[in-house]
Amino acid sequence: MHAGMTGPGSYDMLVPPRIVFGAGRTAEVAGLVAEFGRAAWIVTGRSSGPASGGLDAVEQACRLAGIPTLRVATSAGEPTVDDVTAALAALPSEGRKDAVIVAVGGGATIDLAKAVAALATNVPRDAADLDAAVIDHLEGVGRGLPISRLPLPLVAVPTTAGTGAEATRNAVISCSRRRFKKSMRSPLLVPRAAVVDPALTLSCSRDTTMASGLDCITQLIESFICRFRQPVPRALVLDALPRALVALPRVLAAPADLDARAALSHAALMSGIALTNSGLGMAHGVAAALGIECGTPHGVACAVMLPVALRVNEQVARGDLAMLERTLDPAAGDDARAARAFMERIERLCLVAGTPQRLRDVGLAADRLGWLAEHSGGASMRGNPRELDAAALLPILAACY
Predict the structure, then answer these.
(1) Is there a single domain that holds both residue 211 and residue 226?
(2) pLDDT tens digits for 331-368?
(3) Which domain holds residue 77?
(4) Which of 127, 150, 326, 336 has the most CB atoms less than 10 A away?
(5) Segment (H or E) for 225
(6) Where are the alpha helices (DSSP H) in 7-143?
(7) Contact criterion met (CB below 8 Å) for 307 and 343
(8) What would the pLDDT profile of 105-144 be if each residue is shown by its tens digit?
(9) Which of 261, 266, 73 is closest to 171 using CA atoms?
């Protein structure tokens, strides 16, 4: 221990009980299903599951193992209350005690699967109003009911490298009619197993790769500097972030680079663990509201806000930002110089990725800046190193309009 170093204090750590990582390991899903149940109920993305090859691989592996499969839901973007209610209504009433939910898709698919797995056991099958039942289990709306019963077992098979949803304890659900994006949150929502196969990300378009990668990088950085940061997640970030910062430009230039895609898949998984056990910050707080107002893909919204958030937090997070820069350049100089170099590194990465630079570039109307400031709170903003309320946030957003 270094001189003057203090103990880490008290903390909890929450991770998937099983993590299976590596190219080609999707075939091992069948064995995991057999550990948890007797049938695979599959939730998949409309395009991501089939295009990635993950859906075929899961179904073939289960067929060879004699495990029956049933496709119970398909996601078509970030999940909505309507998506969850439709999936719950369509679930078979028989066989639930033997069913394992297998999610094959991006973060949106995995979030839908988490909600279905949890509410299948926490909402009565004969509930008169499924819509209300879903809302009542979301934060900040409805009755705030907890997930009290163990969800159906969930095996998450991500086909993108970004959200880290395979390792998180929340499912983000939106509602266009009521204009909200809220989380269902519980330690019980963490998947029983995460099967992370980087080969499944080879089919991702450049835009998806870019948005997912920058979401992952934003999560790693914000969890490292947030006010609720914890020691184990910070150690994971110090390993994963430099890999991601090197890998993303490589993948954008050479999409078939499986080694770089593996680095991004690993970083995404670590980002999910990090945010679950620490927290996030301003970039994610604003990104959620941008998604509601403009329909901005989450990773794109994060990319717009990350350079802004780093400048806003520079003074209070300078030492941490400097530490991150030194993972890539040990000779980066004193904290002020190293922190500035890190922020410039992120700005260059966003330019290389070709992400929007200003809020107007994602379709935000000038007269909606006040609304955006008012609706950029929530759990993510509470973790921001610098305390920001709507009044403090408004001029920041106006400056990047």
Answers:
(1) yes
(2) 999 999 999 999 999 999 999 999 999 999 999 999 99
(3) 18-200
(4) 326
(5) helix 206-225
(6) 29-36, 48-52, 54-64, 81-90, 107-122, 130-135
(7) yes
(8) 999 999 999 999 999 999 998 888 999 999 999 998 888 8
(9) 73
